[in-house]
Structures are given as structure tokens and as C-alpha cells.
Amino acid sequence: MSIVTRGFRGRRDSAPDLPPGQYLTRDFPVLSAGPTPRITTDAWQFTITTEAGAKHTWMWRDLQALPSEQPTVDIHCVTKWSKLHTSWQGVSLDVLFDAVDTGADYAVVHSYGGYTTNLPVEDMLDGKAWLVYGFEGEDLTPEHGGPVRLLVPHLYFWKSAKWVKGLDLSDHDEPGFWETLGYHNYGDPWREQRYTGD
Question: Which residue intervals define the domain Oxidoreductase molybdopterin-binding in the entry (predicted)?
């Protein structure tokens, strides 16, 4: 039995504004490796650890006290589905990084359950990424990464790590879970960077 949820197979539509190789879905497929972590908001916390080892931690109540945004974005999965005009609620990573003294170029994202992925820091700033806890006006469900997931919509959706719990900042790039198994290190859907060598 595979530990990876089977790919979604549903009605496929095409649209001119999709990245190459993608098809449009109106559903929200659930794809994950391993079991779904169940983290309560009382237990949830998020920590940014700088390259110098300084730790900055936010609990659920801290996150809720920060100014929230409601981005509406298109999302694109490496398994070739795209979902357009998705609405989220959360906190821009710019707000969290305001409290962090760093010159790091890279981050490894850590999730409850052990999942990791890597990102350049510049891809998480300037309004490009959020910690989200709401989807389409409802609390984000565990199946879709709740209570909080990372949202980095300009990259393939595996970079938007579910069940997020922290970032380790670094001066060097370190591939995460899928990247070490052959997924592209960066993952730009418009350049079809699905796998190593793309």
C-alpha cells in the first residue's frame, strides 16, 4: 500500500491562463505523504530560527493578534491540477520577518509530522507568502494543512507546506523531503520545473 494519497481524477477543463501541462479543477484534491497530523490550536506554535541561532516563536494567540490579509490566488500542483481564484486568510510572512534580524538567503520549512521543503527567503517576502489558517471563509481543515499552512502560490503547491511549524534560516540551500526524492529544487509552474533537470 502506498503512503502517498492517490492522485485526483475528475473532470478536466483547460483554460488559457494555466501554466503549461496543467488542467483546471473546481475541487480541492487532497494529496499527502503519510498520515494527517492533528494539531490543536492550543498546541500549535511557529518558530523562525535565524542563521545565528536566535529563535522567534509565535503561539496561536500571537498569530491571531497580527494583522491578517485575505489573498485570492491561483494554486498549481505538481500532479498537474490547478485551482483558480482560491481565497485564504492569514498573516503575511513580511509581518513575522519584521521581528527577525537576518541576512539569510535560504530557509528550510518544517512541518508537524516531519515534512520539510526548501525556499529562497526572497520567495517568502514582499507579499509573496503567508501563514494561512482560513480557506474560503472557513477554518483550514487538517486535510488541507490546518491549523496553519504555508502559502507560496507562485511555486508548485508542494512548496506551500501543510501543518507548518517553523523555518530554519541559512546561508546555504538545503533540499527538503520531495526535493531529495527528485522534485525540482525551486518549482516554478510557469517553467514546468517539476523534477530535477526540468
Answer: 34-178
